[in-house]
Amino acid sequence: MDEMTRRERLLAVLQGKPTDRVPVLTGHFNEWADDWKAREPSYRDLVSFCRERCDGILSWGPRALNETAPATSSPAARVQQQTSSLPDGGAERTDTLHTERGTLTRRTRRVPGAATQWQVEHYLKTTDDVDMLLSVPEEPVRFDASGFDDADRAIGDAGLVLGETPDALCVAADLFDFGTYTIMAMTEPELFTRLLDRCHRRVMGRLEAMLLAGPVRWIRIYGPEYASPPFLPPRLFDRYVVPYVGEMIARMHEAGAFARVHCHGRVRDILPKLIAMGADATDPVEPPPDGDVTLAEAKAIVGGRLAIFGNLEIKDLETLPRDEVVALTRRTLDDGMPGGRFALQPAAEPITIPLNRKLEENWMAYIDTALEHGRYR
Known about the structure:
Elements: H1 6-15, H2 36-39, H3 44-53, E1 56-60, E2 63-64, E3 78-85, E4 91-99, E5 102-110, E6 118-121, H4 127-135, E7 143-144, H5 148-155, E8 159-166, H6 168-173, H7 178-187, H8 189-213, E9 218-222, H9 234-240, H10 242-254, E10 258-263, H11 271-277, E11 281-284, H12 295-302, E12 307-312, H13 314-319, H14 322-336, E13 342-346, H15 357-373
Parallel strand pairs: 1-8, 8-9, 9-10, 10-11, 11-12, 12-13
Antiparallel strand pairs: 2-7, 3-4, 4-5, 5-6
Helix pairs in contact: 3-15, 4-8, 7-8, 8-10, 14-15
C-alpha cells in the first residue's frame, strides 16, 4: 500500500478501511496544542519528537460564555471566587455558588510539580444540595466555538482536530466526591436522573456548537467510565450512559462525525454496549490488572465493528527498562494489528514538572518501535 498521510491514516482507521501501518498516537498528550507542555522547557524535546513522528491530534472544544458553574448559567445564581496560597507553594481556590435557596461550595487545589488540579471539596454533598442546584432556573448556555478552522489549518495533514466533550454523567458525577456520587447514583436514581437530564441538555448544546463550528471529523466523549464496573452495576450503565451517549452519537453521525468513547477500567461487558450505541472507536481498553480484558480478547469481542485506541499503560512507560518497553510495544502490536481498526497509544499523559527523563526515553522508544514494526505487509 502507498504511504498515507497521517490524516488519511486516522480517517481510515475510523472508517474501518485498510491502512499502511498502525497509527501511532500519544493519547491525551495533545502535542499540537499551544498549552503548558509547549511552554515547559523540560517537555520541549518530547513535544517536537511527537510532532515529527506521531499521527497527531489537536484537542479542541467550544468555550462556555455564560456558565456560572457546572449545570448552572442562570443570573439567579452567582459564583464568588477566592484564591489563597499554600505553604507548599501550591494554591487553593474556593468557589461559592450563591442561589436563592442557599450556597454551595467547591475547593480546588494545585500543587507544585504537577500540571493538574484536584477538587478537595465538591459542590454537592447531600440530596438537599442536589435539589438546591436543580431549583436554579435553566438558561441556555452560549458558546464560543471559533477556532476550529485555525486548529485544522495548524495540524494540517499531520493528523486531525479531535473534538472533546463530556457526557452528562461526567458533568454530574464531578459535582460530588466519588464516594458520595456512587451512593447517590445507587440510592437516589430518580433524583440523579433529574440531574443527568439537566446536564445532558447542556452537553447537547455544547455538542451542537461544536458540530456547527466546522467539519469536525471525530469527537471524543468522556465520562461513561463513571458507571463502569465495579463502580456501578450494569443496569445503571444502561440507565445513566446508554440513552444519553446514544443520542450524542446519533447526532454526531447525522453531522458526519465519528464518535470515539473514552472509558477506563473494566470494559469487557461494556464493549458490546458501545457497539450497540453506534460508537466508531473507543479508548484506552486497559490490559489487566487495571482492566479486565486483554487486547486480543477485546479485538475478538468487537470483531472489527469498533476501532480500538490503546492500550499501553503509562505506569509501564514510567517504570520499565527501555528494552522491556520495546518488547511490550511489539507484543501489543502483535495483538492489535490483525484485522486492522487499531491505533497504538498510552492510556494517559505525563503531568509531572519537570518531565521524568526515564518516561521521556521510554515514550520515544514505544513510538520508534511502533513505527518500525507496525507496518502492514
